[in-house]
Amino acid sequence: MELKKISILIDLIIFLLFLLMLKVNMNPFLGIRIPATLSDGDIWIKTHKKAAQFYCTGSVFHIVLLFLFNSTYLIKMLDVFFWLLFIFLLLYLIYYANTLYENKFPQKVKRKNIFKQPFLNKLFYHLSKLSPGFARMPFWI
């Protein structure tokens, strides 16, 4: 099969899978199954709704771009870009679900101060000087 057809087939599978995830109730088999989403139905719904928005839009956009490009090299580069984007969006969704969990159940979240060690304390100090938003990022361990 041609590379363009394989990419389109994979995009259609991703599109249908994430549309299906909108309809699936909380379960331990299909979906973004992390402790935060499995703990509460509302967090499950919000996380999967955002995932469906990201991945359905991304797969349609990828299909449109595949029809615009005819070069095999450009199609390979586009596929690599979209797979990296897929991974980063998944990491964002995990962060999003954990943030929802922390906001809903603040008493259940145990935070450890990982900056007690001198090296990490200095690193955190310098990074917070570069970016003030870095100081407000939650670190869970």
Describe the structure.
The structure is a single chain. The chain is mainly alpha-helical and 141 residues long. The chain has 5 helices and no strands. The chain has 2 domains: 3-109, no CATH class; 111-141, no CATH class. Helix 3 packs antiparallel against helix 4.
Structural class: mainly alpha
Oligomer: single chain
One letter per element, helices H and strands E, the order comes to HHHHH
Percent range of helical residues? over 70%
Distance between the termini: 45 Å
Beta content comes to under 5%
Q: Count of helical segments?
A: 5
Mean pLDDT: 83
The radius of gyration is 19 Å
How many strands in all?
0
The unreliable regions are none
The domain count comes to 2
Shape designation: flat
Question: Tags for this entry?
Answer:
0% strand, 2 domains, mainly alpha, flat, 141 residues
How do you describe this structure in short?
With 141 residues, this protein is mostly helical. The protein has five helices and no strands. It has helices spanning 3-23, 35-39, 41-68, 72-104, 118-130.
Please give the structural blueprint.
Blueprint: H1 3-23, H2 35-39, H3 41-68, H4 72-104, H5 118-130
Helix pairs in contact: 1-3, 3-4
